[in-house]
Request: fold
Amino acid sequence: MKPRVAIFDFGCCEGCQLQIVNLEEQILDLLGVVDVVTWREAMTEQSDEFDIAIVEGSITREEEVPRLQWIRDHARILVAIGACAHIGGINCLKNRFDLEEVRRYVYGEHAEVFDTSPTRPVGAVVQVDAVVPGCPIDRQEFVEIVKDLLLGKKPQLPTYAVCVECKRKNNVCLFDKGMVCLGPVTRAGCGAICPSFGNSCEGCRGLVPDPNLNSHREVLAQYGLSVDEILRFVNLYGGCQPEIGCFQEAVEATGGPR
Amino acid sequence: MKDGKIEVHYVTRVEGHGNIHVNIEGGALKSFQWEIPEAPRFFEAMVRGQSCMDVAHITSRICGICSIGHTLAALQAVENALQVRPSEQTLLLRKLILHGETMQSHVLHAGYLAAPDLLGAPSVVPLVGSHRDIVLTIIRLHRLANEWSDLLGGRTTHPINAVVNGWTSLPTEEQLAGLRTRIEAAVSDALAIVEVFKTLQIPDFKRDTEYVALKHPAEYAFYEGDIASTDGGTTPVPDYKKKVIEFIVPYSTAKRARSDQRPSFAVGALARVNNNYEQLSPLARKAAEDMGLKPVCTNPFMNTVAQVVEVAHALEDGLHLIDQLLARGLREEDRTVQVKAGTGVGAVEVPRGLLFHEYTLDDQGLVTDANLVIPTGQNHQNIEDDMGTLIPQIIDRPQEEIRLMLEMLVRAYDPCISCSTHLLQVEFR
Reply:
């Protein structure tokens, strides 16, 4: 029997599900080896019986916790896809504010009706068996990770930084162009896509294991970023990562040029 | 049905979560509600304190399907706040990438999400077996649209290259010429889809509705224009709050909107065709005639047909834009801007309708205030008003049929609930 796959989403833009659709003809190959049994965005058919749950999005209010728990209880393997599910992603920006004030700002006098809680990645609520990082996910990396899972292998993500891929592409370093970049502390696997197109790496794939953040802070400061700018930059996608939290506390405790 | 409830909890094949609740007693419609329970994400609050140079990359993440539209609306708003007018080359490239997204989104909706209803299938999956040629044609068009966005934006979703006052990386002239060849070859695929839609039975339902869309004297407006209405009159974009008035209902995390003239109105492909039919490209005009779409069409189910018409327009106008770019030649341009305090509004026609971004910046260029008005949010009240007219007309039919019609109605709007928060289910109660 083909493995049964279910796709679920929480708070996010649903752009990572879209990357699965964007596999185009390759989806037909995928459908040859798995049965997709639940996918609200694409199908009316639904089933409570599945082997692999693919989960997109972050948890942004308490009422979603039981649904995620239910998915975890039903799935043999749970895969978190995309920055929102993996590290909280852009949704973590909310956590920088007082949540009461945030609700009032958007919904005014009706604020009480709309529940919200601090953003958490999927792995902060339930156990996650595999992740596909990125905002959005890379379609081919997704296919490779699904293949590994179907073969019973544990998918391995690169443990080196985006800089390695960027150097391999012979890109001129963005720091040498007077820009700043999170490439030195961000997990590779995207092919350094943003720097290759002349944009800073914004850290959407999460930190490399054991990142040297303090050294990177010195680099950013050396290239003219103030403490506020450094914190804004590292919090863009990564604010829910514990290392960024510790880093922020350390930076705030020691102060610096504001 | 005589008595009972229809409860659709999470309408499927739409972007995001929405519920439909209907209560019928003694053969009469007692109550109905279009509820959006999607988790709100608070982007308007979140972008405060961020640099105006990063805002487009952040608000692009509101929606995976229309990330290009959000990017462009954010860039426009920031440029207007900074009083910067981008170059002709930048504007042509923006219009071109927007067509890529419009086509991607419309093909996704008409082909993958709505067509199964019209062909009597629960999803596109069984159609792979029963209608393989159509599915492969849809996939080919979808792939072209994505590779089109890829070429200009650096990737399909959440574009990298489009930034304030320009592009960080340009396609080569060879790449543009290559895209042109592929677009020309795709015209026959688009015509094949038109042939399919000509044969499909679109539900016959009409409700007098106000349609709102951008209007531009020189072109079928997607990227710029004034706010026009089928009720007449235009409103300049900076005055958008006079035309589009947002409000909140407690059962919906998505905000709703009324117009200055009516308690509800519609935006999207049908609204654009209704306002700007005369400016459609010849191929698109022909497609509209073939599928029986004439302005002003007040059948919301025809929105999907209007999307197919716009796919033809995107292809043909895409050729025209590429020709202009190749005739000018592409060159690197200075993108430097002077950061200063100010307020700016951006308005773009994204696949689902008119999108507004407004930001206020301080003298450091940091956002102090933000307002985002999302197309699906503008449609929610109109969807509910359509339900109020449609249900009594079909109330004698069996429950399952009513449920399907209501789901199809919602799907016809191609709602994007992540954008408007995230929405969609039908409950009958």
Chain B touches chain A through 57 residues (CB under 8 Å). The two ends of chain B are 12 Å apart (CA to CA). Confidence is low (pLDDT under 50) at residues 420-429 of chain B.
